[in-house]
């Protein structure tokens, strides 16, 4: 025994032996792989790097492309430092001192704390999303789009792109401000001769130099990202050295404060630019500024005459106690002079003019403005998630690195606020451009050992941040374009041969140029604040949604999150948007909304398993359960359609105008289910059913019908239709109206199944208490692009079955095709009815229904049955009899052919009464008999039963006398048809009560004839059969 299993001489392969163990599953191995092969594929999966490593390698001309190494970066180098570099920026060096001086230490701490809370809560949400599976190229955009769907993903992705692009513009403007204000003021191209034009000249300088810088940076990014990445560490070192010099300077100021004297006239701050060093000439200089001449008796400024000139230290130092003065806010209006409240001052008679050498406020400040200007200094938290491909363990590094970077930067900002308030004089803090300290950068005055450390460091760090923005933004746009959700952005998905996004870089540079043309750092900052806040808001929303919906795939490794934190972050983001600038907030929301709607209507269909789809499912389930509580009230009744379509042999829709009519009736409201039946076996016809479903979807899109399609495979068409009518819909969202086409040329059709299926469907809808609409001559109905000229929609209200006849024309007239048509209602009065009173009552009824229509009562007199009616009935019955006999003889011929084939076989034959094999149902089993056929018996049977094969059979048929009930029905049909054609021959559409089929199925063919006679001579007819419930009411 052991020899069989152990020492197998055939040498079975390990794989074969393994497969033999899985022989039960071998037929499905192509669609359901072995677990080992799946795990092997996952183990070999390497994430795409999101830095520019692959581009660097492609750019190294002449070098061999190195083999792709597995990502090796840890938390510190891969996430923590990039986040630090992106978060610390231009605002810290250029505006934080001004924010502290204007808002006061307490309010500045509040601003910093709110902004840092916003980014911390967003980072927690982002960590949960980033650790819920692998995040490939696209970083933050990928996270949002895969969590919230293509519409939100595209809208927020573009907002994030615009924010990053404007951030690049802001950093360039910051670099130019440092260059022209503090490094090389002599480099200004535009110089104003008067104080009034200084601001405009400065803005023009910013525009020119900003455009030059942008061009140079864009060229550097175009030439090679590897240079930007190599410079990144240098720029980061500049930032860290600058921050350390501020802390060192603050500590040193406690023992030996740096000497930066500030001249004050009374309590007003004087500009240090006009004052020389104290060598006896300062008084002369001031005299010339405030007086009309150098003489001692010259008339001088009123305030100058009454005030003393004093000098105060610009940096009193950490131990001076100046924080007590700086703790409260001092908001100024544009043109106000910077004043020190503790110094004595005479009451001014006139406000100072800008021709005097004071330091003025350049803009009107408020708490909300400062929030908008400061917020960009806390953005940049996505840097770690954007590099997830370079990390050894992204799911561990991203949360730790990002949150630690935010905590570090928050600590730096909060401590800087306190240090600035404790070390620097209030008027110097409020002096945005350092005019009072001879044009020095205010934060530079505190640094140690020299102000140049901060000036040079901040210049290079802002240049580096600008380069990083111009590198990251085009890649983000390329990721959005490659997803193909926004059709007009497709061109930006292409680039150089190595994948570098050339076109995206060009667009980014053009948008950044718009920011540079604004030229003011204080105006650009709130714009990018809006876009970043919008992005963070949706990150929080994504996390909250996924958590609340408990999606099965929502299993983040980072477990320190909660939906309440995400909602709090979302609320803070929204509040900050409207606090900092309500009009920018509205613009940002409108832009995002427009992008959302554009993607919804024109974007590519994507299924990313997003949270919005999950939210839709939850909302749909809730709504369906609510709908289940009871039947809809009459006031809420609207036709929920099940449209039955037939496909031809090539799987094309036979009557597409049925869908057109459905769209005109619905006008996009309510439920529409489009169904078709394929005859066959489901096991063999599954592919055919899918193809038919796609055909229906395509036709629905073409006709702009919003709804669902359903394809059923059944052995018989009538069974499939019956199943569809019974089972379509879900809960309260079920159809209440069936729309089906009239069987064309049913008289000429050899196959009786078309009209038999039609009548069977009428019976099924009646049994299910559903309304039925049958448009006759559907090919003559107008298309959606063919509005009817002025005419009438005529309603022939013969019997009342719920008010469908009143409601349908009203709904049709909501559509542009039927809008110009007026409505006429005709009703039939018998001899015993008072037609005048009927007309009054009907007019009152329509008035209460709020339906405008002309009313007419048509009197039908009792008349004898005409010879035409009698003859028509006779022809109908003769034709029915003849067709029945012909079908029987056809059946006999088939039986004889079978007899020749299998002479002595035992056959199960259908009983003589059935029309066709398809006509048999479960009851036919009882009618089947076992017969042994001989040639003689077959001939005898043929002679006895083939009635139409002998002249006697035809003579019997000619001697038929029509059935009296059929004559009466034909009489009604003929008389009604005469009246309808007389009154409505020119109507655009005629709506008519559809009589029910006979209870006895033997009269089905006669029923079809009655309907033909009833609608003869009318171009467009809609036969309407109510479901038995009231669908229209006079009550509000």
Automatic annotation (TrEMBL):
Residues 656-773, 789-1036 form the SLC12A transporter C-terminal domain. Belongs to the SLC12A transporter family. K/Cl co-transporter subfamily. Signal peptide: none annotated. Residues 79-255, 364-642 form the Amino acid permease/ SLC12A domain. GO terms for molecular function: potassium:chloride symporter activity. PANTHER family: SOLUTE CARRIER FAMILY 12 MEMBER 6, SOLUTE CARRIER FAMILY 12, CATION COTRANSPORTERS. This is Solute carrier family 12 member 6. It is found in: Cell membrane. One of its GO terms (cellular component) is plasma membrane. The gene is LOC110531493. It comes from Oncorhynchus mykiss (Rainbow trout). The chain crosses the membrane at residues 74-94, 106-135, 155-188, 208-227, 234-255, 358-382, 403-429, 449-467, 503-521, 527-548, 560-577. It is a multi-pass membrane protein. It catalyses: K(+)(in) + chloride(in) = K(+)(out) + chloride(out). Keywords: Cell membrane, Chloride, Glycoprotein, Ion transport, Membrane, Phosphoprotein, Potassium, Potassium transport, Symport, Transmembrane, Transmembrane helix, Transport. Its main location: membrane. InterPro entries: AA-permease/SLC12A_dom (IPR004841), KCL_cotranspt (IPR000076), SLC12_C (IPR018491), SLC12A_fam (IPR004842). One of its GO terms (biological process) is potassium ion homeostasis.
